[in-house]
Amino acid sequence: MLNRRNALQSLSVAPALFLTQAASSAPRRKVLRVAGIGTQYFKNSHCDVIFTKIMQGWDHLGFEGPKLQLVSMYVEQKTDNDISVAKSKAHGVPISNTIDDALTLGTQNLQCDAVLSIAEHGNYEVDAIAKQRKYPRRRFFDEIADVFERTGKTVPVFNDKHLSWNWQDAKAMYDRARQLKIPMQAGSSLPFTWRYPNTTIPIGSKIKTITGVAFGGLESYGFHALETIQCLMERRKGGETGVKNVQALPYDRIWEAEKAGLWSRKAVQTALKAAGKSAEDLDSKLRQEDSSVYVIDYLDGSRAVCCMFNGVTDQMSVAVEFEDDRPIIGQWFRMEMVYPFRHFEQLVRGLDHFFHTGKEHTPLERTLLTTGILTRAIRSHFNGGMKYTTPELAIKYKPGSWHFANQFEENFPEPVQY
User: Fold this and answer.
1) Of 30, 104, 164, 175, most Cβ neighbours within 10 A?
2) Are residues 380 and 304 in the same domain?
3) pLDDT at 193 over 70
């Protein structure tokens, strides 16, 4: 078993080169005050793997962490396994009864330098058609923005995962953030995690198709899969131009879609191989009840294919095909699937930089686009594979600038026993 000091050393994975660059371009300031807004806070929840890293360090063992201080928490639903109350007492972080109070601490002024909004778990209504849980991401954001308007001050906001379960709310959140000039990021931890092989797709690459192979819930993990695809797709020649149409093929249409050329078994094999998985017996291993293929056609003629292949893999990986003679590239987005889930450490490192600089390095437009793709894909899946034309997703933006975990060093940390 690793001792605590050795555990700390194994967990310190920030690339020295990046730290040198960050120090020269954006010197660290004072410790910033963060208000934490969440739906539920229990061990392994998103609140845990993010809030706890602020209170107890990257390793959750009390060592070094971000230069952030959690000064308040609003947790909407207390569960039988809730840990927010215990964390509050242990670290002197008050629990507020409202989002307004969490941001103002009962005063007339904003009392935080940044806001974390995490609406990922909880007992909320489920959409009857698309089976999506209606997490209150827009309501949380609107209450945060209301405080900004009332106090006359804005601070950076991070919204965990996709913007909303529906497009209208997602677009309203984006529009209000831009109208109020709120620095805002959102999205998945996957673009921040380790990638193997350690290969960077150059900006301006002539990308033809990216095929992602993933597992898990069609919405909850489908979003992560789409962000792994999009953080690469946006680096193609001309940058992001938007999506023309979206279609999701449920299990009973997957094989005819392969014959029609909508997805490539070779690309799937390449992606699986990168993650140490095999496409052998794909037809027999694929689960019928929760597998689907999302086909995304972009306005510039490129394509993304997101294969939610439950029963075949338990990893996230991609295959990138180019228009020129470059060989197909497979890449594994490696997560740490045990506590404390240190791919979230990489996310929080990015948030630490974002909160200190107030400058978005992960485009909010990326997550607006992936949110829109996902809402259409889920509807398509439950409507038998209906194709949706998406003029509203003609979203143009420049690629993100934040590094992935091992972009400068090949260093996946050893697991720590707790």
Assistant:
1) 164
2) yes
3) yes
Q: Is the pLDDT of residue 284 over 80?
A: yes
| Residue 363 belongs to a domain | no
Q: Is the confidence at residue 132, as pLDDT, over 60?
A: yes
Q: Is residue 8 part of a domain?
A: no
- pLDDT for 2: 35
367: buried, middle or exposed (CB in 10 Å: 19+, 13-18, 0-12)? buried
Output the six-digit token pair for 279.
């496409």
The 10s digit of each residue's pLDDT in 361-385 is 999 999 999 999 999 999 999 999 9
Inside any domain, residue 325: yes
Same-domain check for residues 248 and 376 = yes
Last residue of a domain, one of 187, 204, 238: 187
| Cβ neighbours of 184 (radius 10 Å) | 27
Residues 156 and 178 in one domain: yes
- Pair (171, 227) in one structural domain: no
Is the domain of 169 the same as that of 234? no
What is the rounded radius of gyration, in angstroms, for the C-alpha atoms of the chain?
Answer: 21
Q: For residue 141, give Cα distances in angstroms to 152, 169, 337, 347.
A: 16, 10, 29, 20
Please say which residue of 187, 210, 233 terminates a domain.
187
- pLDDT, residue 416, reads 62
Torsion of CA 94, 95, 99, 100, to 10 degrees: -40
- Looking at the structure of the chain, the number of domains it has is 2
Q: How many CB atoms lie within 10 A of CB 105?
A: 16
Residues 86, 235: one domain?
no
52 vs 12: which has the higher pLDDT: 52
N-term to C-term CA, the chain: 9
The C-alpha atoms of residue 248 and residue 271 are separated, in whole angstroms, by 19
- Where residue 413 falls among pLDDT bands split at 50, 70, 90? confident
Q: 167 with 226, same domain?
A: no
Q: Do 71 and 160 belong to one domain?
A: yes
Q: 148: domain range?
A: 31-187
User: What pLDDT is stored for residue 409 in this prediction?
Assistant: 73
Instruction: Give the residue-averaged pLDDT of 239-249.
Output: 98
Q: Which residue has the tokens 């437009």?
A: 365
